[in-house]
Amino acid sequence: MEMNLDTVNFELREDGIGIITLNRPERMNAISAQFSDDLNAVLDALMDNLDCRVVLVQGAGKAFCAGMDLKEASTLMKRRVPEIYQKFNYIDVPETIKRTIYTQARLTDITVKLRRINQPVIALINGPAVGGGFTYAMAADVRIATENAKFSIGAINVGMGGGDVGGSYFLPRLIGMSRAAELMYTGRFIGAKEAEEIGLVLKVVPEDKLMDAGLEMANEMLSKSPLGLRMTKEAINLSMDSPSLETMVKLDNRGQSVCTASKDIALAIQMYVEKKKPDFPLR
After folding, report:
1. pLDDT at residue 201 is higher than 70
2. Is the per-residue pLDDT at 229 higher than 90?
3. Which of 145, 195, 155 is nearest to 175 (CA)?
């Protein structure tokens, strides 16, 4: 499976690793209208794709994603609001507000889909991850960065709020409320070393080793049951908002029961006993 769109490319390797490449290097992979449509399309295609087991997300060129393309922001704001959104306008809302609501909805769709797809997502951050790009990196399951990586909320620096496309949800959960508040109020950049120290990224690697590090982690995940990976991501997602231990215990019990009934468990146990990595077939 390949998708070569205008601003986002997707390649599915034979081993089940999918690679999403944000491909606007001339604009540091900043978010445009086309970028939003293309990335949404790729994530939609991954929702029910059982052949893709792990996803890597990288940025072409010298950046991961520089956030909203301010030069094209007017294009996003001038897009026609679909009829499905028009019907909710029960009061006289200015057209600019309607467009803002629609534009933000499309951008936050990406955030939600990065968590909703079944595959674990590993973000490979090779440069700036700013604004929405920072949030998309936070929405990944794991982040690996190079020494050139740097992060900023961004929106607070251009007259908007520090809570942007879901960043206010992820950041306090990843690094704690106090650190998150400071970054959201100030919009300051943090480098790769600080990001690693506070737990925002898993590790920092040389630039020429970034893809290797991502593939190494993805291959480790491929040695696990495909169903087990999907159940694990579901458990992680729900645990972030779980009201109680009892709720998560019931979810974990359900997940383990489903995995026990799958065809993969016999192979997994056999290979574990023999100290070998199982080769689970693609679905």
Report:
1. yes
2. yes
3. 195
